Amino acid sequence: MALFAGFSFPAANAQRIPTWPDNKIAVSLSYDDALASQLDNAVPALNKYNFKASFYIVPNSANVQS
């Protein structure tokens, strides 16, 4: 997370993609399968840097407790 917070890396040729307002950069973070480590590690790191992410949970997964 600190790497994303401190640096920016182009993902594509800048001439082929539109610019974001105020020249900001967008990164999409997604987490799959509701692993316990995501709650224990990813969420605190995301909160520390005020990052947002998408969590995709599979309801019938062994990782999801009812």
UniProtKB/TrEMBL annotation:
PROSITE patterns for the chain: NODB
GO MF entries: hydrolase activity, acting on carbon-nitrogen (but not peptide) bonds
InterPro entries registered for this protein in UniProt: Glyco_hydro/deAcase_b/a-brl, NODB_dom
Residue ranges of every copy of the NodB homology domain listed in the record: 25-66
GO-annotated biological processes: carbohydrate metabolic process
Annotated signal sequence range: none
Protein name: NodB homology domain-containing protein
Organism: marine sediment metagenome
